[in-house]
Design goal:
Structural class: mainly alpha
Number of helices: 5
Strand order of the largest sheet: 1-2
Mean pLDDT: 73
Low-confidence stretches: 1-5, 193-199
Radius of gyration: 20 Å
Order of helices and strands: EEHHEEHHH
Number of domains: 1
Number of strands: 4
Distance between the termini: 48 Å
Helix content: over 70%
Strand content: 5-15%
Amino acid sequence: MTICQSILDYRLERVLGVLVQSNWFLYLSLSLVLAVDRLLIFSPINPILNTYIIVFLLILSWLFFALVTVVESLPGFGLTYATFLIWLHKKDNGPHLLFEVESYVDPCTLIVILAIYLLVVGRLIMIKLSSTGYSVSLKLELRILVSAVISFIYEFFLVTLSFWNPIQFSDKKYFYVCLNIIQSKLQEETKGVDVSEKA
């Protein structure tokens, strides 16, 4: 493993690879829990039941994180550091199976998260049409939706590049240049979206 022209220990690479993979799954599952929480806020279900549902989903997310951490720590599993900021699964059968499963789980999870945010905005529009008391909340939720859409586009693009690599450059320098340009443009776009600001 080489970072900044220095060679790091094999054990450190194993630990970092496990952390990268397990934290990615934790991020995805917590993003899904957050989206479900947004949906339940505007649902007619009992608020106490909402709390139990969210706590249950949070516990499942952390258990999933622990499971992925254990599986990725097994001999033969895990990620290896290939080139600048690119982590790849090892070449054994187990990691290959995980790679195949993840190539479908990641995009599907991102699509479900975006669909939930769209449902939240649709529900808020229905509430707004029936009464006038939720206009501030609708503006705030629209800002959250814009942030979710930008996040979805960025993450979906990176997941697609990681698993199916539709862009084939003969020289990898251009590939990294394109990734950096896309990342800087998305960061510029997100600077204009202030989710914490009240309407």
